[in-house]
Amino acid sequence: MVEALIEIALTNDVAMLDALLQTLENRDHVINGYGKHDRTALMLASAWHAHHSVHLLLRRGADGNLKDPDGTTALHLAAENNAKHCLHQLVHANVLLDEQNVWGWTALHMAAAEGALECTKALLIAGARTDILAHETNDTPLDVALTGGHAEVVALLRRWDPVWSSRDASAPRQMAVWSTSEVADFLRSLSLAQYLPAFEHTDGLELQDLYDERLSATYGMHRAAHRLRLLEAIVLERLRQMTPPLMDSQRVQLPRLEARQHSSDEGRNPFVI
């Protein structure tokens, strides 16, 4: 029955998959059972970009943290195959981000080694650690990206600041992790909606690196006043995100002003500070 579940999961047909799951008396056992290549249906669906199946399997009780004999998880496989939609489903299900396989590689190592830019960024935003070392080579994700010659992933890992991670939910949402739709909302708030087509594929990480000349040459923002408005807003937004709100214990308590009557000198100011 595990093999049948795997076969249907790989088709990404959730109607058929759910119909099978509903008929299983021992569903919890089968859904986490090992089949082909000593892997579960969730692992293989994650590797094969079957994101609808991944979503359903997780909802029906699939364990996203199970490992194959090499210590590989579903997250490893999604990252290795740049299956970004599967990876997002796994991250939203709160699977462990920094699990290492028998070689000490995390999912971030996998994504970096394959040059999977979108999966790399998604893992970083979720809070994956960049400092974990492989067991024998002591390679970090940046090291394996350099070895593979993946320039975009190298650039991303080199400039990534851990404070941009969403792991700390109490912190302001950093511009670096804004989606393209959030960038569009930002432009609308500045009355710059006419430039939305040019910014269609620009996310927050790219937005915060813009400069005057590039806005004119690449984005067609030829009016200096518009460029200035956007660049000033970017700086102010980043400053706002960097400045934590004062805690109650940190707020300055000003002394209360009390009126003091001076009967002997009516001409004096009755309020003494």
Description:
- Helix 5 (51-59) packs parallel to helix 7 and helix 6 (74-80) packs antiparallel against helix 7 (84-92).
- The protein contains 15 helices and no strands.
- The radius of gyration is 27 Å and the shape is globular.
- Mean pLDDT is 87; it is low at 245-252 and 262-273.
- The protein has helices at residues 2-9, 14-23, 27-31, 41-47, 51-59, 74-80, 84-92, 107-114, 117-126, 141-148, 151-159, 180-189, 204-207, 212-217, 224-242.
- The chain folds into two domains: 1-163, Ankyrin repeat-containing domain (Serine Threonine Protein Phosphatase 5, Tetratricopeptide repeat), CATH 1.25.40.20; 186-242, no CATH class.
- With 273 residues, it is mainly alpha-helical.
Quick structural summary:
The protein has helices at 2-9, 14-23, 27-31, 41-47, 51-59, 74-80, 84-92, 107-114, 117-126, 141-148, 151-159, 180-189, 204-207, 212-217, 224-242. By secondary structure, the protein is mostly helical. The chain folds into two domains: 1-163, Serine Threonine Protein Phosphatase 5, Tetratricopeptide repeat; 186-242, no CATH class.
Question: How is the topology of this model organized?
Answer:
Elements: H1 2-9, H2 14-23, H3 27-31, H4 41-47, H5 51-59, H6 74-80, H7 84-92, H8 107-114, H9 117-126, H10 141-148, H11 151-159, H12 180-189, H13 204-207, H14 212-217, H15 224-242
Helix pairs in contact: 1-4, 4-5, 4-6, 5-7, 6-7, 6-8, 7-9, 8-9, 8-10, 10-11
